[in-house]
Amino acid sequence: MEPIIPGVVDLSRLQFAITALYHFMFVPLTLGLTFMLAAMETVYVVTGRQIYKDMTLFWGKLFGINFALGVATGITMEFEFGTNWSMYSRFFGDMFGTPLAIEGLMAFFMESTFVGLMFFGWDRLNRHTHLAITWLVALGSNLSALWILVANASMNLPQGAHFDPATMRMQFDSIVAVIFNPDAQAKFVHTSVAGYVSAAMLVMGISSFYLLRGQHRQFAARSFRMAALFGIISTVAVITLGDVLGRMVYEHQPTKIAAIEGLWHTTKPPFEPWVAFALPDDAKQENHFEIGVPFVVTPLVTHSFFTPITGMHELEEQAAPHIRSGIEAVTALKAWRDGGSADDLARFNAHKADMGYGFLAARHAPHNDVSSIPASKIEQVIVETEPDILPNVFVTFWSFRIMVFLSLLFFGLFAFASWASLKNRLERNRLLLKLCLWSIPLPILATEFGWITAEAGRQPWTVFNLLPTFLSASTHSFSYMVFSLAGFAILYSAFIAAELFLMFKYARLGPEDHTTHAGLAKPHNGDQFASVPAE
Fold first, then answer.
1. Which of 230, 457, 480, 515 could form a disulfide linkage to 256, CB 3.0–4.6 angstroms apart?
2. Residues 6 or more apart from 458 whose CB is under 8 A from it?
């Protein structure tokens, strides 16, 4: 086993976190805007109203900017797996790489091809064909997200594969089991719908900007209404689906759910409070300034009033026999690979279910080799390894709460915005319009914190219960990682600057003016906005 260099591992984690979070700023808008564009163009095809084509063209322009930068930031991430996480790629490459390859061959090429037709086919395709293309773009973007989350789900809930001691790799058993991983299904719908919330807030916020300035009033009012209704439906869905995902995490990742809820000790239902506010102390393993709401946490997490939730102290105690068995598994595996007998292989097979815990103990073993631990020191190593099974509780606890708080804020904002729009009271509520404008970045922030919750809560594993993060990184030098990290930070900062510049530029320019020579929008029977003066 290669020696562990903590600084290199930390820098590798930091670099991947930065690139992933940068990339994930573009993904939600791509997922959501495609379906909003499809809905707008559908209304255009059904009604024949020019303004809905204008809406599709204008918001499609902002989608195109976001899509291009999303692709640029996403491609570089894939190279990081080979450069910075070579041990992970070797151990888990078949499981992780196959869904990514399918995503590239099926969804990404499909999406990219139809994006070109969507942008350049307006004057070359009839309305119905172009509408079909737009819907295929929406389908392709969400299929792309599906395959990426299938790959990620295999890291959180490994299934459909087995470990081969001869190759030291996870080998495929069933692609069906990988695709229908319950973590993938729950995370896909939750993540996709969160993207719809982000897109709805962007459209609603920019529309509010126009209404505050008295510009493009028909365009802005219609866009605002569609976004508000799209947003309220999406917010209800994301909260509901988040509960489904939380239930799945409770069943399969007990350390993550305990960290999310800040539960250091097993609950005593039904009286145990839900910890609304606390300052978790990872070093002392306790909460400071805790404020709880009684009778909430047990039904919220377990959907039962009488099912206890195992606390982190008890999870540490439960890990001890697994660590002991894991040390036995890794020791037997090393002996067999060094030319040992069939008895060594049989001993490994008897303990292989806990192999990951043996790898986790390597941090506390001499030369990171658990087979070299003296018999008299094994219990000490087990005690030292027990706290390592827990994620960073402070980060996991607060990233989840920020995400939930923002989701509730979006629900209230979209609900009031929908009511004001349906009652034709938008321009009277300037405070609402300002709130919508300044809330544009908040859904992106919520999705970032949701991603932090998912990924930080999985620690200390890259592959849950199988491969620890500190063993997954490549053996680069510290100086190489510093240089690489600085390069990525500069490159991605340039991407963000380009995104903001272009989005601000075209948002300020607004849609093209298709008003009549009289200066009024083309009237339409039953159109409540027909009397609004155009610019």
1. 457
2. 155, 156, 253, 256, 391, 464
- What are the b/e assignments for 192-206, b being 16+ CB within 10 Å? bbbbbbbbbbbbbbb
Could you give the residue ranges of the DSSP H alpha helices within 84-108? 86-102
What token pair was written down for 350? Answer: 């008897």
**Range list of H helices, 423-477:** 430-438, 442-458
First vs last C-alpha separation in the chain = 70
Residue 181 neighbours by CB under 8 Å, 6+ apart: 150, 153, 154, 157, 159, 160
Domain count, the chain: 3
Structure tokens at 112: 């990219």
- CA distance linking residue 414 with residue 417, whole number of Å: 5
Range 425-452 burial, b when 16+ CB lie within 10 A, else e: ebbebeebbebbbebbebbbebbbbbbb
Residue written as token pair 């049989």: 346
Helix (H) or strand (E) holding 411: helix 393-422
Contact 360, 388 (CB under 8 A): yes
| Residue 526 covered by a domain | no
Tokens of 179: 């695709």
Determine the Cα–Cα distance for residues 84 and 8; give it in Å rounded to an integer.
Answer: 9
- Contact between 98 and 172 (Cβ < 8 Å): yes
Tokens 């695709």 correspond to 179
Q: What are phi and psi of 262, to 5 degrees?
A: 65, 40
Q: The pTM is what? A: 0.87
Question: Quick one: 72 and 210 in the same domain?
Answer: yes
The amino acid sitting at 435 is: L
Same domain, 208 and 81: yes
Tell me: do 243 and 302 sit in the same domain.
no
CA 377 to chain centre: 41
Q: Write down how long the chain is.
A: 535
Dump pLDDT digits (tens) for 441-500: 999 999 999 999 999 999 999 999 999 998 888 877 778 888 888 887 888 788 888 888
135: left (phi over 0), alpha (psi -120 to 50) or beta: alpha
Q: Is 151 contained in some domain?
A: yes
Residue 282, in any domain of the structure: yes
120 contacts 175 by C-beta, under 8 angstroms: no
Helices (H), 108-181: 109-120, 127-156, 175-179
Q: Is residue 95 part of a domain?
A: yes
